[in-house]
């Protein structure tokens, strides 16, 4: 009589080490999309056993916080215990357990990408989620270091913009911000002090204004500024004015001031005149990047440039190491 032999179970410690190998090493991406193999595998691990679920959930929220509005944002708040579940008791990864697993600050998410694929009536659907975004950002404020926003916020009314910017003011630990849709309207002086910010990417800011330079001056650790399709950039004036400000700061303090890297991104045919391919000064280095186009070259230059920059930032590669 034949007897069935069950294969031996792997030790739990070995299984957890295998799960750890699923996560990216370097560079660490901002957020892996839902279709990424790592995301789908981690989601599967959340329903395998009580022992494996905690590590899988924590890794999922650390590396895969890729939010595509509007319903997923509401579901995320429910999972974190920050919103009411009105969907007949639907369990989103077990809201109570997720809230408990992420309660220690060490396990709170540090990177967030929030986007939408909607193109029509943007101003109508986005208003209801502003409060939800404020709730989420308040929850993440103690730990959030990398924030990438891809929402049509320029279409919002004045009240909604004020509500959103109020939420953005309380993120003191940010090291990277990529906003190519206008929520951080730096040209009007609304950007809050971000003492730890190292990398900033904006779309078409007015870099020659006093407000813009004053806002940059409030970021002492800023290493790189990525500007997509900027207009009115007088390269010599911008560099000279920045140099005067840095020289004055250098004379007032003994703290070493690093050189600011400015990367101007556009399709080659749309670059403004006066912007050099590369220029290295004492206080600023300027690089011009030509975004590749198709054979026909009939794409929208602004949209193409935004996607090019966003892909690289989401990959986790710092601007100084981009291949030009």
UniProtKB/TrEMBL annotation:
Entries under Gene3D superfamilies matching the protein: Ribonuclease Inhibitor
InterPro entries on file: LRR_dom_sf
Lineage: superkingdom: Eukaryota
Name of this chain's protein: F-box domain-containing protein
């Amino acid at each position: 009589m034949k007897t069935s032999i069950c294969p031996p179970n792997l030790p739990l410690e070995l299984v957890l080490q295998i799960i750890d190998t699923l996560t990216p090493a370097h560079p660490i991406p901002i957020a892996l999309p839902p279709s990424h193999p790592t995301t789908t595998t981690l989601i599967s691990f959340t329903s395998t056993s009580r022992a494996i679920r905690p590590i899988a959930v924590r890794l999922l929220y650390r590396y895969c916080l890729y939010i595509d509005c509007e319903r997923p944002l509401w579901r995320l708040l429910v999972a974190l215990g920050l919103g009411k579940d009105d969907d007949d008791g639907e369990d989103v990864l077990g809201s109570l357990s997720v809230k408990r697993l992420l309660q220690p600050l060490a396990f709170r998410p540090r990177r967030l990408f929030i986007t939408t694929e909607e193109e029509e009536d943007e101003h109508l659907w986005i208003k209801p989620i502003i409060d939800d975004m404020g709730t989420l950002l308040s929850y993440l404020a103690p730990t959030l270091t990398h924030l990438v926003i891809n929402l049509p916020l320029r279409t919002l009314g004045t009240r909604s913009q004020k509500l959103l910017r109020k939420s953005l003011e309380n993120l003191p630990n940010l090291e990277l911000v990529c906003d190519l849709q206008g929520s951080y309207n730096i040209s009007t002086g609304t950007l809050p002090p971000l003492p730890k910010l190292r990398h900033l990417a904006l779309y078409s800011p007015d870099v020659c204004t006093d407000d813009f330079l004053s806002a940059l001056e409030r970021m002492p650790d800023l290493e790189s500024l990525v500007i997509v399709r900027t207009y009115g950039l007088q390269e010599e004036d911008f560099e000279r004015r920045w140099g005067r400000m840095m020289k004055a700061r250098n004379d007032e303090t003994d703290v070493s001031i690093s050189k600011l890297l400015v990367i101007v991104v556009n399709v080659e045919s749309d670059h403004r005149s006066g912007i050099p391919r590369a220029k290295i000064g004492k206080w600023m280095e300027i690089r011009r990047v030509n975004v590749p186009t198709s054979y026909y070259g009939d794409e929208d230059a602004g949209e193409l440039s935004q996607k090019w920059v966003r892909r690289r930032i989401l990959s986790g590669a710092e601007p100084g190491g981009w291949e030009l």
